[in-house]
User: Fold this.
Amino acid sequence: MFTETLRALRPTAVLLLLVTLVTGLLYPAAIAGIAQVVLPVQANGSILSDAHGNPIGSALIAQNFTGPRYLHPRPSAAGKDGYDASSSSATNLAPGSKDLRDAIAKRVTTARAEGMTGDLPADLVTTSASGLDPDLSPEAAFLQAPRIAKARGLDVAKVKSLIAEQTEQPVLGIIGEPHVNVLLFNRQLDMLSATTSGK
Assistant:
């Protein structure tokens, strides 16, 4: 009886081991290897480096740029102070929440103090579901152009032109929304300022 049970279980155990080996080891290793060859930057986290080769961040994860010289990212609720990649989260506050209304009102006040006028895009005053959204809408970026231009001594038209250049369009014209990657844009700003100051 015991021998017959073992004989009946053997194919199941072999199949389990085989499926585990294929789906848990071989397939992931093959995909990782292909990704390293075909898309090495993306496979390694889309890490950006400065002129000296030092990593400055990932194009996929928001950082908190607060200085007037930089494009500010979407607000974050990830972690105690926000922008904590190990604590990705949203506020989960209901639309009628007083805390949510107060947070939005505070961000609107800050935006007005920075000179932004007119309607403010939602991504300037609300957090994303992950709290780590690396992108902004072009409208949110354009509203920050006067502050950036003043802080860097640049022409506003030049900053707006750079925003337009850095705006990524939807994939195939239909998947996603136009957006500006904040880290990539700020990197371009620093390169532009370095070139301008070098003249």
Summary: The radius of gyration is 24 Å. The helical segments are 2-38, 40-43, 98-113, 122-125, 138-152, 156-166, 182-198. The chain has two domains: 2-40, 46-198.
